[in-house]
Amino acid sequence: MNYELYCCIKCRQGRQGTKRLNISGANLSGANLRGVSLRRTNLSGAELRRANLSGADLRWSDLRMADLSGADLSGASLRWADLSGADLSGADILNADLSDAALFGTNLSGVDLLTADL
């Protein structure tokens, strides 16, 4: 992951009222983003393969067409997120909150839907 992008995400932690972060199309594959707040972030088309997003706050985020295949989303909050057309194949969504999330055309193959809050 790009160092400047990593710093931008980490510096945003704990701030209230920050502008919506736009990191659409970013390559965050394999990144450790455990517990980070990416609320209202534009991650459309982002590469998040095998990323650790466990416990992350992704509420109201734009994840359209993002690649989250094999990502760890356990305990993450994706409430009201737009995951339309995203690839979540093989992702771990144990105890993730996907209530009110847009899942139109989302690839959920190999995902255990019984372990998430839909």
Structure description:
This protein starts with a helix and ends in a 107-residue tail after the last helix. Helix content is 8%, strand content 0%. It has one domain (1-10, 22-118): 3 Solenoid (Pectate Lyase C-like). The longest helix has 9 residues, at 3-11. 41% of the residues are buried. It is largely without helices or strands.
Count all strands and give the number. Answer: 0
Query: Quick check: average pLDDT?
Result: 88
**What does the oligomeric state look like here?**
single chain
Return the CATH class. Mainly Beta
Q: Which shape, going by the Cα principal axes?
A: globular
The CATH architecture category equals 3 Solenoid
The H-and-E topology, N to C, reads as H
Distance between the termini: 31 Å
The CATH fourth-level homologous superfamily: E3 ubiquitin-protein ligase SopA
Q: Could you give the topology of this structure?
A:
Elements lengths: L2 H9 L107
Spell out the key features of this protein.
118 residues; little secondary structure; Pectate Lyase C-like; 0% strand
Q: How would you sum up this structure in a few lines?
A:
With 118 residues, the chain is low in regular secondary structure. It has one helix and no strands.
